[in-house]
Amino acid sequence: MIFKNAISWFEIPAIDLDRAQRFYEAIFDIKMIPLESPHIKMRMFPIQDPASGIGGALNKADGIYIPSATDGPLVYLNANPDVQLILDKVEAAGGKIAVPKTLISPEYGHMAVFIDTEGNRVGLHSVPPGFGG
Questions:
Q1: Are 13 and 117 in contact (CB under 8 A)?
Q2: CATH number belonging to the domain at 9-126, selected among 3.40.50.1220, 3.50.50.60, 3.10.180.10, 3.40.50.740
Q3: How confident is the model over 45-70, as pLDDT tens digits?
């Protein structure tokens, strides 16, 4: 099997969903979409094409997720056109920069890692202009 996209969905744990929402809305200049029911409390990242099969959300699920700056998978969010544009907003929004903008290679662009307001380690990636970004 070959996947069209390696990621289909991701969830970032949140202890305080409203605080986490404010942080991500501030650094990405977006408006997150609330999804709440008796069993689910999420803030979904807005996506251009829901049919793409790729999406994600902040999730407050007590007992299921534990925010971590060191353990577990590392999700990289799209920071095109430049990782630095997002990093410049992280500390003002209440986060910390863990790995500054770093060149992967001229072909594969740049990466960085921050710690969000919930204590999660989250990656950023941007690709060079004209290289599939």
A1: no
A2: 3.10.180.10
A3: 999 877 676 889 999 877 777 888 88
Between residues 127 and 112, which one has the greater pLDDT? 112
* DSSP assignment of 55-79: EEEEE--TTT----SSSS---EEE-
pLDDT (tens digit, 9 = 90+) per residue, 74-95?
899 999 999 999 999 999 999 9
Residues 6 or more apart whose CB falls under 8 angstroms from that of 117 comprise 16, 19, 20, 22, 23, 93, 94, 95
